[in-house]
Specification:
Chain A: One of its GO terms (cellular component) is membrane. The structure holds two protein chains of two kinds. Chain A has helices at residues 2-11, 26-39, 63-73, 87-98, 113-125, 130-139; strands at residues 18-23, 48-52, 79-83, 106-108. Chain A is of the alpha/beta class. Chain A has a single domain (2-142), classed as Rossmann fold (3-Layer(aba) Sandwich), CATH 3.40.50.510. Chain A has a four-stranded parallel sheet with strand order 2-1-3-4, sandwiched between helices. Helix content of chain B is 69%, strand content 2%. In chain B, helix 1 (4-32) runs antiparallel to helix 2 (37-55), helix 2 packs across helix 3 and helix 4 (79-94) runs antiparallel to helix 5. Chain B is mainly α. The chains are: A alpha/beta, B mainly alpha. The A-B interface holds A 54, 58, 60-64, 86-87, 90-91, 93-95, 97-98 and B 36, 40, 72-73, 76-82, 84-85, 88, 115, 119-120, 166-167.
């Protein structure tokens, strides 16, 4: 186990942390992903996947879409999962509690959705590890606007 | 003793009562929620009965774990992970026993309710499903009928409460005077137990 962890840390220099954006709305998730990548400048190498709405295209949360998005951004350096509210938060927590539904080293990050997404993508683009990406996203709570 | 047939029956009769009461659940969810509780649970329990027919798990624990997994996958609202966690954790606590007694079910259900409280952060009195489930589990030691009555009473007792969790909590004092939809559907789930036991 500790060997695995050590090699994962070494690998984080080369492998980028993946980011999943979970919203009740497919458009919100996709737009925030686009915004965060654009604001990160040349950060397009960061794997970012939106998981918005239900599989039927309605407002809501889909465990399947979340699991598929997380698998698609997993490069072996961990996956940061950012959510809007309510069932998005609860569904990710329930999937993490299942154990095998999300890639190893997936983490629900406590952060504001838009600001956290920008901070996470910018930080991940530097090759930072999952701890640093999660810390940067959470820190977005402290940026006051007035 | 309660065997796999009992647990299958529990899920089937609950699916039927959710079907029957879907409009009422959604109506309760209109003034203090987003008016989708009935249709969400209907979709979830329809998937549960379909999966139970297809995969035919043969122990009480396996039946509840499969049912919970279906709810997490298909509901699309907060009730999915909450009810999914309730049934999965209860199922896991039952282990792989072929039969369990009512006291073992009460213990397992208590573990499930504890997991729901951890997941959602709700405590008794917050105007949530917990307000029906906790008194039901407490009464289950006595009988299935007592658990059903306790859950129904708990759901009604949410009317004067102010919501402290979920979407209804944004309404503050305006949530007072409405029966909580989640507590109401939890009472249906517990009534399903009593119906499956023919009490």
């Amino acid at each position: 186990m500790s060997d695995e962890k050590m090699s994962a840390e070494k690998m984080s220099d080369e492998k980028l942390v993946g980011i999943v954006l979970v919203s009740h709305s497919a458009q919100v998730a996709a737009s925030v992903a686009e915004l965060a990548k654009a604001l990160a400048g040349g950060a397009t190498a960061v794997p970012v996947a939106p998981a918005g709405g239900t599989e039927g295209g309605e407002l809501g949360t889909s465990a399947e879409l979340i699991a598929a998005a997380a698998a698609s951004v997993d490069r072996g350096a961990g996956v940061a999962v950012l959510t809007d509210l309510g069932s998005a938060v609860l569904t990710v927590k329930a999937l993490l509690a299942e154990g095998d539904e999300l890639p190893a080293q997936s983490r629900l990050v406590d952060c504001p959705f838009v600001e956290g997404a920008v901070a996470a993508v910018v930080t991940a683009a530097t090759g930072a590890d999952l701890d640093a990406v999660a810390a940067a996203a959470s820190e977005a709570y402290s940026y006051r606007k007035v | 003793m309660l065997d796999a047939d009992f647990f299958r029956r529990w899920m089937t009769v609950t699916a039927a009562s959710v079907d029957r009461e879907a409009e009422r659940l959604t109506a309760l969810d209109s003034p203090i929620g987003d008016a989708d509780h009935g249709s969400n649970l209907q979709r979830g329990f329809t998937a549960v009965t379909a999966a139970l027919e297809k995969e035919a798990p043969d122990t009480p624990g396996a039946i509840l774990i499969l049912a919970g997994r279906q709810l997490i996958s298909t509901v699309g609202g907060a009730s999915g992970p909450l009810y999914g966690t309730l049934l999965r954790r209860t199922g896991k606590a039952l282990g792989d026993a072929a039969e369990v007694d009512r006291a073992q079910l009460a213990d397992a259900l208590r573990a499930g309710v504890d997991a729901v409280m951890t997941l959602g952060g709700a405590a008794p009195g917050d105007k949530t499903m917990i307000d029906a489930l906790v008194p039901a589990v407490d009464a289950l030691g006595e009988s299935f009928g007592a658990a059903r009555n306790a859950a129904e009473h708990g759901a009604l007792a949410t009317i004067p409460l102010q919501a402290r969790k979920g979407r209804a909590s944004y309404l503050g004092e305006r949530s007072i005077g409405h029966q909580d939809p989640g507590a109401t559907s939890s009472a249906l789930l517990i009534a399903g137990l009593a119906e499956a036991a023919d009490e």
